[in-house]
Amino acid sequence: MHFSKEEFGNDFSWGISTAAYQIEGAHDTDGKGMSIWDSFSQKRRKIANGEHANIACDFYHQYTSDLALIKKMNIPNYRFSIAWSRVLPNGIGTINYKGIAYYNRVIDFCLELGIEPWITLYHWDLPEALQKKGGWTNREIINWFSEFVNCCLNHFGDRVKHWMVLNEPMVFTGAGYFLGVHAPGKKGLSNFLAAAHHAAMCQAEGGRIIRSFESNFKIGTTFSYSDLAPLREDHERDAKAVIRVDALLNRLFLEPLLGLGYPIRDLKILQKIERFIKPGDEQKLAFQMDFIGLQNYTRELVSYSAFMPFLHAKIVKAKKRNVQHTLMNWEVYPPCIYNALKRLQKYPSIKEILVTENGAAFPDAVVNEEVDDEERLQYLQDHIAQVLKAKNEGVNVKGYFVWTLMDNFEWAEGYSPRFGLVHVDFDTQKRIIKSSGKWFGQFLDK
Ligand code: FCB
Predict the structure, then answer these.
(1) CA angle 119, 121, 122 (to 5 degrees)
(2) Confidence check: pLDDT of 1 > 90
(3) With a 6 A CB cut-off, is 167 part of the ligand 1 pocket?
(4) What is the pLDDT of residue 235?
(5) Is residue 88 pLDDT above 90, yes or no?
(6) Mean pLDDT over all residues of the chain?
């Protein structure tokens, strides 16, 4: 390791990220309503091994000891999400005060431990009641989401000062409304583009609502952002394919937020989104965030493909390329995060960048009550070093949050890809801090 914490400066936020559905469990406890992930995971063959997150890490009941682990690892910032259907079981209307009380306990205990809470408002678990009305494809969601944001601000805004509006809109609209591999399992271009436009509207609207509630809050939203390169160097058709994939995966939600509109010029099919755009929307898509949350894990190599509809491009996965990869089949390529940061820096209207997720799933083994996860430790050190390199070259990156606190429910992949700094035995709920977690704790203990 060739860096120290001091090199990042005193105003650099170190943290750890989680998401409600992946850890909380208690899926129907204390008046919680059903979410699209509760219902999606009940369907056959949607989740690896037929798994679900009814119990998950049981964080709902174990949050005091889990937050104590964050404290033990000296991690000063904790990013977590609010399960919409826990506070508003039907998505709108009646408030579930037991759900509110639970998040108040989590927030209060963070503060008691000296851990700063960072809230992600939406990390993919839409109330099922709203999906019945079309979910993200229904324009009404702008009002539903506003009600949810206001509800969270009214109940938590007296103590929580850091807010993120959406988690990775490209993933939840792409996987959930185009490919159908994530909840709610919808498919097709029209579902996707409707959901995408409404999510892009909500991301800006959410920012405006938070700002008008309290102008000093630190507001951001997060994006999945991959480093892309052509499979074959100096191959013109691959190079052009990269531009199309970049427009879709990296720019579709970011650029309208920055006031640049949708990247239609570089991906013609996106023109079809215009039928969902109402007069006045173009201005409303833009909002000046205090920070952009970068979520980056890997790089993707792209090749031209005549067979892929719309995109005419495909991503060639790491296994096929015979390169080092994680259990997600994501290439281990540390410069990816540096490249992503450098590219984001090129947008003059991005004030500040925080890495809000980075981490890796490797096969971990418990030996004598210990988990020596050397590969994850190396991954984290190598990626943090690349963040520092970008920072030293002038990129305004002001934070780094590891994905994730503990092994948890990895969406359609179920429980087998373990990403945690803390190992979880899902039969006993026993926790063991892995070597990577111990290292992070020592690194932060300065
Ligand atoms: C991101 C998600 C997060 C987690 C990681 C591995 O796309 O935001 O919930 O699943 O990937």
Answers:
(1) 135
(2) no
(3) yes
(4) 96
(5) yes
(6) 98
Taking residues 233-246, report their average pLDDT. Answer: 97
Q: Where are the domains of the chain?
A: 5-234+289-298+330-444
For the stretch 167-189, pLDDT in tens is: 999 999 999 999 999 999 999 99
Per the annotation, the verdict on 255 as an active-site residue is no
Q: Which residue's CA is the nearest one to ligand 1's atom 5?
A: 403
Q: Of 51, 295, 337, 376, which is best to mutate to test ligand 1, by the most ligand atoms within 8 angstroms of its C-beta?
A: 295
In this predicted model, what pLDDT tens digit does every residue of 22-49 receive, in sequence order? Answer: 999 999 999 999 999 999 999 999 999 9
CB of 407 within 6 A of ligand 1: the answer is no
Q: Which of 112, 120, 132, 125 is nearest to 71 (CA)?
A: 112
Q: Does domain 5-234+289-298+330-444 have CATH number 3.20.20.80?
A: yes
Q: Indicate whether 240 pLDDT > 90.
A: yes
The verdict on the CB of residue 171 being under 6 Å from ligand 1 is yes
| Of 168, 205, 255, 300, catalytic | 168
Query: According to the model, what pLDDT value does residue 404 have?
Result: 99
Percent of the chain at pLDDT above 90?
99
What are residue 423's DSSP bridge partners? Answer: 432
Q: Is the CB of 373 under 6 A from ligand 1?
A: no
